[in-house]
Structures are given as structure tokens and as C-alpha cells.
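@channel anyone free to eyeball this complex?
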Amino acid sequence: MMKIKSFIRLYGLFAIFTVIFLIAMEAVVEAGFVPSYIIPAPSEVYRAIIDNLSSLIFVHLKVTMLELGIGFILSVVIGVILAVAMFFSKTIEKIIYPIVLISQTIPIIALSPIFVLWFGYTIWSKVAVTFLIAFFPIVVGCYDGLRSGNSEYVDLLRSMGATKWQIFTKFHVSSALPVFFSSLKLAIVYALIGATIGEWLGASEGLGYYSRRMSGQLNAAGVFAAITILSIAGIILFIIMSLIEKRLLRNRRS
Amino acid sequence: MMKIKSFIRLYGLFAIFTVIFLIAMEAVVEAGFVPSYIIPAPSEVYRAIIDNLSSLIFVHLKVTMLELGIGFILSVVIGVILAVAMFFSKTIEKIIYPIVLISQTIPIIALSPIFVLWFGYTIWSKVAVTFLIAFFPIVVGCYDGLRSGNSEYVDLLRSMGATKWQIFTKFHVSSALPVFFSSLKLAIVYALIGATIGEWLGASEGLGYYSRRMSGQLNAAGVFAAITILSIAGIILFIIMSLIEKRLLRNRRS
Amino acid sequence: SSGNKADNNKLKDVTIMLDWYPNAVHSALYVAKEKGYFKDEGINLKIEMPADTNDPLKMAAVGKIDLAISYQKQVLLSRSEDIPVVSIGSYVQHPLDALIYNKSKGITRPKDLEGKKVGYASSPTSEPIIKTLVEHDGGDMSKVKMVDVGFDLMPALATGKVDALEGAYINHEYLLLKKEGVNVGKMSLEDNGVPDSSELVFVTGEKTLKSEKDTLTKFMKALAKGQDDVKKNPKSALNVLLDHENKNFKLDKKVETESLNILLPLMGDKTTPFGQQNPKQWKNLADWMYKTKITPKKVNYKDAFMNLNY
Amino acid sequence: MLELKDVSYTFKDGQKVNPVLQNINLTIHRGEFVSLIGKSGTGKSTILKLIAGLLHADHGSILLDDKPIKLGDVGYMPQHDLLFSWRTILDNILLPTEIKKQKKVKKQEAIQWLEKVGLAGYEKAYPKELSGGMRQRVAFLRTLLTGKNVLLLDEPFGALDALTKKEMQAWLLSIWQETKQTVIFITHDLEEALYLSDRVMLLHPDDDLEESPIPFERPRSRDLLYQQDFTRIRKKLEDRLRHDEN
Amino acid sequence: MLELKDVSYTFKDGQKVNPVLQNINLTIHRGEFVSLIGKSGTGKSTILKLIAGLLHADHGSILLDDKPIKLGDVGYMPQHDLLFSWRTILDNILLPTEIKKQKKVKKQEAIQWLEKVGLAGYEKAYPKELSGGMRQRVAFLRTLLTGKNVLLLDEPFGALDALTKKEMQAWLLSIWQETKQTVIFITHDLEEALYLSDRVMLLHPDDDLEESPIPFERPRSRDLLYQQDFTRIRKKLEDRLRHDEN
Ligand SMILES: Nc1ncnc2c1ncn2[C@@H]1O[C@H](COP(=O)(O)OP(=O)(O)OP(=O)(O)O)[C@@H](O)[C@H]1O
Ligand SMILES: Nc1ncnc2c1ncn2[C@@H]1O[C@H](COP(=O)(O)OP(=O)(O)OP(=O)(O)O)[C@@H](O)[C@H]1O
Ligand SMILES: [Mg+2]
Ligand SMILES: [Mg+2]
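replying in thread with the prediction:
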């Protein structure tokens, strides 16, 4: 209960700002300054959401969240494994870091035939895109976090005869958490973008697909309905990550 | 000179790995396991690069780098300003953070009509996409970095009568650098993706445009030629960032 | 019913990838599926949607899908790049592509494009088409400014960033732009020097054609039956499509009805029945594509298509 | 004049509550040198933080020359050395000068100071290259160079060897005699407290502040340490401290 | 038996070169209690780091029972307390037990130890809630609980008040008399060094190690501090230290 109250207090300001912004937008579109097939009036978007609410939420959002969930978990697991492997072995680092980098510089649309070839139009092609986008900040953040630890503590543990693995679990893991969480917050948002882009590369459900369909019909209200829901989902995911971060980093001497 | 030597020693391993990988790819494609119109043989890609080298480098890469340069600088400047503003004022934070988040959850293709409306098909539409993608990690990294400082040092400076601004410049800026650089390394890579995607939304030059044109002509070798150059550019940019990071963080007690 | 279930086991899976998301042009597919015409032929049809307009051809070539709906020009382009695909039937036998332009910019004939901006979607055929158009009318192509507008054709014209579009369809973009109140006109390509072509064709991989010729013939047969139904009763055919889609996406009924009206005359008439491909059309197109350097080498058009007998 | 009137302070962290100081009263005159001693954990450092303005008293008031104390009024040396790892030694000690923007203390002066505390040649070194005692000397110099009239020193010489300590004490006294700064000095070394101070305040765990004036003439010579008067007071204070054991 | 033979060590950082130790020789017998004193910055902490295996001698060898020393052979307490901020006090002192996975020291025992050093009730507190002296006591306990035969203590009681220090010294001696651990103890408090040790080693800036045996019987009583023999040795060492001033 306390949580919710303080949440409202905290974000009330943003809410007020949003309302003012929406009213202004409505006026601008009404007055015809911006064509409504490019930026629709907020009221139209609202209607587009309400009219399709159950399909937007229970079909499209659900599918997007599923893709995001699997992709994000995979990127955390594999991203952390890669970062840890790089941390332990310079050899692995020298090989993997460039590959990780290359994976990011390739335009995803160029990969679409390859993904389709491998995964077909199953959920896995979207998971693959989600993974590809979200694992990069995790690898970099986790690796940088692991390297950031004060070496005096490492020396102390070494003097106790700690193995490399013990030094890792007892010290580096904890000292990496701040940088790591900073990157997790990025990654969760990128995972959402990833799922959306994945849906553009071939899908029949999901908010990304929905927005693409609506855009093809020049239905701006429909596009923004999907965007609105995506944004809200993104903010909620980010807030959840921030709360986990706050909780886990509570006892740090800040 | 020393730099170059140690560079070669460091990345020699990756080079060997790459060569083996390319030879394997060549064999796989030659043998017909993968059709060359989906993944072209490295030798074909090499020929596609060599045949068009001067246009790839001096026309397309140049344009993409220009878009990236302007977009990246803008995202650093504005991203840092936003992060600093959020750091100094809870009110600003409450308003700006959600907006920053929303900006990331919107699929860029959905924004393309709006960009067209505002910027037409000038370089600014690509700069805008670059900016939009790159500024997010900068804002989050810079903000998290600023908040990560040990408060005992802040107390020490406060006791000297330092103003908020002095505490900021003398302590927070320096203590934010590690997390900030971690995010800059992400941002420079994302800026490259941004420029590429921006070019898909309408352009007449640039490596993203080139890869899309080649894809339209079903010329897989051409697509991969552009990708190869993009990847190399991405890695070089990342390495430059890492070197700057190393240089600036040299004297930290690690 | 339970009888159907037993049959299901014997059905052969056939995957078709559409050119774009489902719209009026695909009515026949949905009607034939709904009415069980495919099942009658022993086919269990799966319909998929592509990411990129270039994907379906490649997927058909590697046999990842059995059939793709693609463009005649793309088939020739693919063959020139040694992508082994074959067209087995014509879906829309004439161009839907036309020059769509903003009437208020003073364009009345192709020559008027001089000094104007023409937007296109990164397609390698757009520039040669405009060139053919303008030069056929005695104009100077070097005075026309071509603008690659990426994915979005409509906003480019609607916001006045370009004066005309190449690659927009008379049954889609044209209708939608009109609906939004943009003052658009259209100009046919084949009346202005560009050879006639089939906008949409059914494409399969060479290997698939060899091994599954029988099944593919049956597919065409079932589809032709579906197209007959569409012709006879466009309204109810469209309803099948709309019903199928409306669960999750609302198609604009008015636009789709108008679209189907435009499409039906282009999908088989007395001279060329539905699905039939005209060798002459293939030859003229292949010649033109070589002449305009769209294909780097001359494609043997006879290998590019095959008319199945059903 | 520095006055603490009825000062109380409690650490709160969620549900945990730790009442550290209750109704502390203390008056220190301008130019006085006062040592603060007491068992570990009684709240000596907390008192300094309150005076420095870093913590705010729950009750009571802290006045400097009849005005409520505010940040920047005093020079404060914390118990941890807290050197800035990315600054050279010289830049570390020049920090307060930078903050005040007065550039009163010029580089040359700062280098001379480093020489005086036995750190000649270390100007351009970084903190990680220094031993524990050297770091503490740097932190001490940094505080000195705030140039404030009131100096709060939290165990400034704790990590120093007897000899270096003696030198530093001599320096501190000579500066103090010149500038007549007010000094509050936390130490666990009774000898040090007695030798340097005008008054020694003993903070008992029950928050009672016990005062012992140190009546010796100044300037004091090192021989004082072995005089009977001196050892008597020392013995007395030791007993008072031992008394806290129960 | 612990032997340092001709040990030299130089800090190198890029072009900066700081030769700290040269040809150090030292033999310490099993169960001996040796104090290491000397001016700040002479290299005392560096010697402990070498013995702990954290630094590697440029020349010479360090042998424990005739075998080259390796990491984990000794219990080492660094000069900074280095508590883990995300661990409770109890988890901090249980760290070596976790590392050894022997769970020799159970939670109950650890809590008893906390009581003995005056930190009862602080098991679940976090380091940031402790005063400087309390933190040092925790760091000391953590070293003790490594259970090693050789303990290297770098100014363990530096931040403690006289009384707490006295208590801690008593504890240390009583444990030592029971377990007969070998102890190397760095301190700046000559009295402490003399009172606790079998031998005091004075490290001169020129890297000469000067030995002073402390011949007093054990167990030693506190009165020893005021005996003439004791003060004489103390005085002598003070002079030797002062000698280093030049
Ligand atoms: N941040 C904090 N949160 C909670 N409790 C704290 C905090 N800082 C100090 N304390 C508590 O306040 C009490 C007094 O601490 P303080 O640091 O003032 O002691 P001290 O007299 O300086 O001790 P020492 O001689 O060991 O430095 C201690 O019991 C300590 O546990
Ligand atoms: N990491 C380092 N890099 C360079 N020089 C160092 C480093 N650590 C210590 N030194 C130097 O080595 C010398 C000895 O340091 P050490 O910490 O051993 O001194 P110490 O005798 O323990 O002094 P103190 O009594 O002040 O703790 C000093 O001159 C110091 O400047
Ligand atoms: Mg204290
Ligand atoms: Mg030391």
C-alpha cells in the first residue's frame, strides 16, 4: 500500500505533464496544424485503444510479452555467461568481444532471411531478435561491472587462499551489481524494442505486427494505440527493474 | 608504435579465429550447404567490396559516418544535459525519465512518417534516428553514474562549503566516469545502428541505404559487403571509445 | 466432424507466403480455404506473412516454403541472380503499379515530371520505369529528381515531400490517399511505354516444382475454384476475408470493396483465364529489363515460368 | 566561540534506531585547543560531523559566534582519509583552495607544506602509491589548507609512527600558536591529548561530557611528558576511562 | 618457521620506480610474537604483503617451514579495514570460514567472539553503521577466524581508544598463549610492541632491520609497563627511531 501511494506521489507530476501535453496535442490536431494521418488526436488514439482493448491486451500484448520474456531471460543467461567467461579468460575475451560487437553492427533486417531460414515464422525468430538486441548491453555492463572492483578486496580474499571462483562469487558478483543493473534497465527496454522489430520481420500477432499493419493502412490512430500500450509496458518493465535494483543494492554504502 | 604492436598481439587471436571462420564459411557455401543468395561466400563478399571499394568508402561510409558523428555528438550533449538536470532536480527527473523511456519503446518505423514530415529526406532525419537510439544509454549511464558516488566524499566537500555545482564538478563527474564510459561504448555502437536504420527510412547514400538497395536487387554479396564495412567501422569506433576510457580512468585505484 | 479429422492426417501441408498482409487481393485464398476446396484436393494450406518483400522468393528457392506470392519482375531479377525460382501461375495479370501523383502540382503527362520529385521505395525497377515513362513522352530524365523514401510511400506524398510516387498501387495507396483527402491522380505505366506485366505471380522453387508438381497443380485448381466464387459473389467473398481478419485487425471495408472492384478485371478474362501466363508478356518484360539494365544478364524467360494444366 | 546547547542525535535507518548523543553541552572559546577522548563508539566522530554541519541535531543548537553553524564554516578532517584517487597528492591538498576560489594558497606554498610533513617529491604521485601514514598526512594538510578559524580533526595522527607523530604535533602547535585557530581534536592517545590541549573532554558512554583543564604553560616542551603533574593527570584520566568499563 | 632471505621489492608503475625493500633477512620461529616498527613509509606493510603472498619478491625467497610461501598460508589483516559493505558484520567475520568451507567456526562461536570484543548486538548491522574503531575490531576478528598458524596484523589496534586497545591486547595474548600462533604485528605504539612481543624488529629507512629481544617472562602483567627494565628498552628504541630522522 505504501508503495503504491509513494508511487503516485512520485509520478503524479509526470501525469500532470502528460495530461497537459495530450490536451495541447488534441488542440494542435483539431486545429489542423498536423494531419491526423500522421499524428492522430489523442482522443482518436484513445478510441482506437478502447475499441480493440481486449484484442490489443489479450492477443497482441500477450504475445509480445511472451517473446520479450523468453528473449530477455535468454539474453541475461547467455550475456552473463559470456561476460563471466570473458572476465576469467583473456583468450575468450579477445575472441568473443569482437563477435559480440559485430553482432550489433549488422542491420537486423539484413539478417531476416537468415532468421527465417533457421527459425521459420515461429516465436523463435522474434525471440532471436529480442535476444540479439538485449544481450549486448548485458554483456558490456556485466563485464565492465566485474572489472570495476577495488583490487584491495581481491587481495584480501586471495590472502585467505580463496579460489578464483570464490573471489568471483564473494566479491566480484556483488561489486558488479550497480553497473550490471544499470545495463539490465537498458536491456529490458531494448528487449521490448527487439520483440517489436522481430514482429516486423514476420509475425501474425503482437503489438509490433499490429502497428505495422495499421501503418500499412495509413491508420495512424491504430499505430499510436499500439505504441501507447508498448510505452506503458516499457515503463512498467523499467520500473520493475529499478525496484529490484533498489532492493538488492539497499545495503551499499552509497 | 608500441600501441599498434600490442594491438596486433591482442587481437591476433581474433584474427586467426576470423580466418578459420571465413575459410569454413567458404567451404560450406561452396559445398552448397547454404545457398549463396542467403549467405554469400566470403570470397564473393570480398570481391563485392574490392570492386566497389572507393564508392563504399568515400561515398557511403563517409555519409554514414557523418550522420553518426552529428547524431552521436548530439546524443552525448543532450543526454548528458538531461542526466545532469535529472541529477540536480527530482522534479525534472520525474518528468523527463518517463519521456526518455517512452521515446525508446516507440518502434522507429512507426515514427518514420513524423520524421518525414519534420525533416524530409535530408541528413537530419538520419541524425534524428541516430540521436533517438544513442541518447538512451547515455542518459541512463550518466545518471546512474552520477548517483553512484560514495557519499562520504560528498560530505567532505560539503564540509568545505562547496556549492552543489562544485561538488558536482569536483566529485560526481569523476566518480561517474566508469559507468558513463560503459554506456558511451554502447551508445557509439547504437549510433551506428541508428544511422543505418535512419537510412532505411529514406536516403540516397550511406551504407544502410546501400545494403537495402543491394537487398532489393537480391544481391547478397553486396548486402554483406556493406555489413562487413559497417562491422569494421563499429569495432573501430568501439575500440576508440575503449582507449579514451582507459586513458581517462588510468589513475583510478582499481 | 470426426470424419474430417481422419482425412486431416492424410492431407499434405502446403505453405504459402503472401506478398504483403492479407487484403482484397487474397480473397480467393481465404474463400477456397474456408470452403474446403484445398482439403478436397488433399491440401492443408498454411498462410504466412513476410517481413521483407524479398524474403518470400528466397524462402521458396530454398524450399522453406512451397509457394510465394511475388512479382513477375522479381522472378526475372531472381533468375538473373541465379536464385532458382519458377512462376507457376499468374495471380494479377496486369500491373497494379502506376504513377500516382499530386494533381495540384500540375502533372498531366509523364513529361511534366521534369523538375519534379518522384518518390520510390528502394526498388531497383522504379528508376528505369520512370525513365521509360518520361522518355516515351519525349521528356528528359535527367531533370527528374528521384527520391528513395524507404518504407513509407504514402506519407512522402501526403506531406508534400515528393510530387509523385512510383511503386504505389492503384488498389491500395491510391485509394487510401484519396480517402485522406489528398488530391491524387494516377497514370498507367503500360500505356506509356512500359511493357505489360503480371503484378503478382505464384512462385515456387525449382526443386519443389520437380517433386511436388502434382500438389502444386492441385493447389492452382482449388484456388481457381475459389476465384470463381469471388467473381460470382465479391461481396460475400470479401466478408470471408474481413471475418478472418477482423478478429484482430480491422480492414477498411469500403477501401477493400473498391480495391476488389479494381482487381477482379485484372485477375483473368476471356483471353487469358485465371492463372494463365502469357509467354509474350514474359518475353517482353525480360527484354525490357535487360535493356534497362535492371537484370545484369539476359534471362531465359522460358525457364522462368511454367503453366500448369488443371 | 563555539557552543553546543542540549544537542541530541539519533541515527535512523528504516526501523533501526540508534540514539547516539543526548543533551550534549559544550562551549569552546576562540583559539582554544580542545581534545575529545572516549571509548570507541561513544559518538566522538558524530559530534564533529554535527559541528561541521554534515548532520543535523535532532534537538538543541550549535552556534559559532552566536550564529547557527553552517556548512563551510569549519575545517573538517574525517576519520577515513578520503583522498580522491584520480587527483595527484598536490591536487588533493589544493582542493579546499579550489573550492574557495581564493587561490590564497599557491602551488609553491602547498609544495612547501608537503616538504614540511616529509612528503617532498610526492606532489605528482597518486594516493594509491602512498602508505597509510602518508595518506593521513595528506588528508591533514588538506584540512589545514581550508584556512578556517575552527579545525575539527578526527584522529589525524592515528596511523603515524611515534616520531612522525611527534613532528606533526610540533608543526600543529607552531601553526596554532601563530594563527590562533580553534581546534577540536579526537585522539585515543592520552599523552597526545594532554600535551596539545588546553582542555580535554572525555565523552562517557552515558553521554556525560567530563572536562579536564590542562594547566601547563605554553609553549610546552617535550620534557613535560615526564613531569609528575603531567603523569598524574594522565593517570587520572586513565582511571576515569577505565571507570567506563562497567 | 618463517624465513625471509635476501628479499627485495620495487614498486613499478610505468616509468615510476620506487625501490622499497632491499635485501631483507628475517627469521621468525614457530609460535613467536614479533612486532614490526619503523617510520611511516619505510615498507612495513609491504613486508606483510610479501609474506601473505600478495606481492612477489623481485629477489630472494620467503619460506614457511622450508616451503615457499603461497596464498592462503597465513591470516592477513590489511591496514584499511576493507569490510564488505553488502555483508552484515556477522557475515563479514564468517568470510574466511566460508572460503575454507570447513565451517569450523559456527555462527554461535562467531557471535560469542563479537561479544568478547564489545560488539554484542551488532551481528546484523552493516559496516556503514559502525564507528571507525568498531570496524577495525571486526576486521581483526575476521583475520583471527582464518584459524591460520601465522597471523600478520597491520596496525590492528590503531584506531582504538586506550581502554578498548588494552582489552583487545589481553584477548590477543590469551588466544595466542592457547593456540601458539606465530604473529607478526605492525604498530606505531612502542609500549604495545614491547608489551606483546618476544622480539621487536625496527625497519630503518635504509632497509636495515634492527632486532631487539624483549626478555620479559610470560604471562606478563600490566604493571610491567611501569618497570624500569621496560621503560629502558622503550627509551632505547625511541632513540633508535629518532636516529632515523637524519
Ligand atoms: N551511519 C550510521 N548509521 C547507524 N549508526 C551509526 C552510523 N554511524 C555511526 N553509527 C553509530 O553511532 C555510534 C557512534 O559512532 P561514532 O563514529 O561517532 O563513534 P566514535 O566515538 O567516533 O568511535 P571510534 O573511536 O571507534 O571512531 C556507534 O555506536 C555507531 O554504531
Ligand atoms: N601501490 C604502490 N605503488 C607505488 N608505491 C607504493 C605503493 N604502495 C606503497 N608504495 C610505497 O612504498 C613505500 C612503503 O609503503 P608501505 O605501505 O609498506 O609503508 P609502511 O611502512 O606500511 O608505512 P605506514 O606506517 O605509513 O603504513 C612508500 O614509500 C610508498 O610510497
Ligand atoms: Mg570515530
Ligand atoms: Mg603501513
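from a first look: Residues 43 and 194 of chain D are 20 Å apart (CA to CA).
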